[in-house]
Design a protein that fits this description.
This protein has 424 residues and is α+β, with helices and mostly antiparallel strands. Helices cover 70% and strands 9% of the residues. It contains ten helices and four strands, in the order ααααββααααββαα. Strands 1-2-3-4 form a four-stranded antiparallel sheet, with no helix packed on it. The longest helix is centred in the last third of the chain and has 70 residues.
């Protein structure tokens, strides 16, 4: 019994421990990974939520668009005074006669199907606009994530450079005390310290600005905490960045192209419906006549409209043709623009990758060797302090150029994914 009691208490304790860990994990702010930011935005962003509701509303309009109009019931009391023999009354059994007419409007064959098709295509266009909204929203979040990572790395570079300068200042103070360094070197390094601190102030301000913008997109308070980004996404392999392959994916999945393509099909259906207007719609009815307490007369009714205004019909048909042509032009313009943007971003992305390769494997090793040589030469009194500062500036610029090239490649990847409409 004691053993079972201990087992029960151990199980309960482990359960409480796991629940506490899960609760604490839920309090971790998003931002460490891109997926954490996108998950919050998909759930909370009001603009995206509004587009989803609009798409749902458009879907609900499909069924009513192809439905028949509600039937109409007409009740008419005739001779309510019985030729003046009585006072006016509204009782069907006491008037001269009461007619009951039930009518139903019936459009020409095919009109209901066309209206339903148009509503279906409009719903598909609303879904496409929802996808387009998400593509643009996710691209903005991805860009801010990259920007925060870039600011974070630049802050680390600036702090490391400042620490190195402080160490050099100590060496310089010793040399100056021994008469081996000039006063202007002390002044120069103080100027460099001030410039680095000013750069850090600007980076802190940029970091806070990105936090505000991200929280706005996530529908969170502007000062809500965000975790620091851990790493950038790996770039796709070169085989996945082939223009021919991506252009086919773009034609099939680009949200804007999908919207314009749906618009072409909808305009085509609207054109067909305009030509259907030359055919009449019908009104069928059945009528019963009650006299006193007996229904002894029945009537059938057929009513139709007469589309005889040829000028009006021709104007409507020309309008539908023009709208169809406009939709086709918008579709082609969207395709041409998207393909051009895709090509530009692929070229820029490849240039950024090559720049990063040069920075990493050529310029940075050379700048590092130059700094080491300048530092050794200065400590031995064989080089001026300006030479050391220039070497430090070169390696800092090389590191900044490297991370800037990485960020540029990431930005181009974001644009390519926005154009293609899919993650690569």
């Amino acid at each position: 019994m004691k053993c079972n009691y201990r087992l029960l208490m151990w199980t309960l304790g482990m359960g409480l421990f796991a629940a506490a860990n899960a609760q604490n994990a839920g309090h971790f702010p998003p931002g460490a990974t891109l997926d954490s930011l996108l998950a919050v935005a998909r759930q909370n962003n009001p603009e995206f939520s509004a587009m989803r509701h609009e798409a749902q509303a458009a879907t609900e309009r499909v069924a009513p668009a192809g439905a028949l109009m509600d039937p109409r019931l007409k009740v008419a009391l005739e001779d309510i005074t019985r030729m003046g023999e009585q006072g006016a009354t509204l009782l069907p059994s006491q008037v001269g006669g009461t007619s009951y007419t039930l009518t139903q409007e019936l459009p020409w064959s095919g009109k209901r199907d066309l209206k339903r098709d148009i509503a279906t295509l409009d719903a598909a266009a609303a879904q496409g606009r929802t996808r387009q909204t998400w593509a643009e929203l996710s691209a903005r979040i991805k860009a801010l994530f990259v920007q925060r990572y870039l600011v974070q790395v630049n802050q680390r570079i600036a702090n490391e450079t400042l620490d190195l300068m402080l160490q050099q200042e100590k060496v310089m103070q010793v040399r100056y005390a021994g008469g081996l360094a000039a006063q202007q070197d002390i002044t120069r390094i103080h100027v460099e310290h001030t410039a680095m601190r000013a750069e850090l102030v600007a980076l802190v301000a940029e970091w806070r600005q990105t936090q505000t913008r991200l929280n706005q997109l996530l529908a969170r308070p502007t000062d809500a905490p965000l975790a620091a980004p851990q790493m950038l996404r790996p770039l796709p392999e070169a085989a996945k960045l082939d223009f021919a392959v991506l252009s086919e994916r773009l034609r099939a999945a680009n949200p804007q192209i999908l919207v314009t393509t749906t618009g072409v099909r909808s305009a085509e259906k609207a054109r067909d419906l305009a030509y259907k207007s030359r055919y009449p719609d019908f009104m069928l009815g059945i009528s019963a006549m009650q006299r006193q307490n007996t229904v002894n007369e029945w009537s059938l009714m057929l009513e139709l409209n007469l589309p005889i205004r040829d000028g009006v019909l021709q104007s409507q048909e020309r309008e539908s043709e023009a709208m169809f042509s406009a939709a086709q032009s918008r579709q082609q313009a969207a395709i041409n623009q998207a393909l051009s943007d895709l090509s530009d971003n692929l070229i820029a992305m490849e240039a950024a990758r090559q720049t990063e390769h040069l920075m990493t494997f050529s310029l940075m090793p050379q700048a590092d060797l130059t700094l080491r040589a300048a530092l050794a030469a200065y400590e031995n009194g064989k080089a001026e302090f300006t030479m050391l500062l220039e070497a430090q500036r070169q390696i800092r610029q090389a590191r900044q150029s490297q991370i800037k090239a990485q960020a540029e490649a990431q930005m181009r990847l974001i644009e390519i994914e926005r154009l293609v409409g899919e993650e690569l």
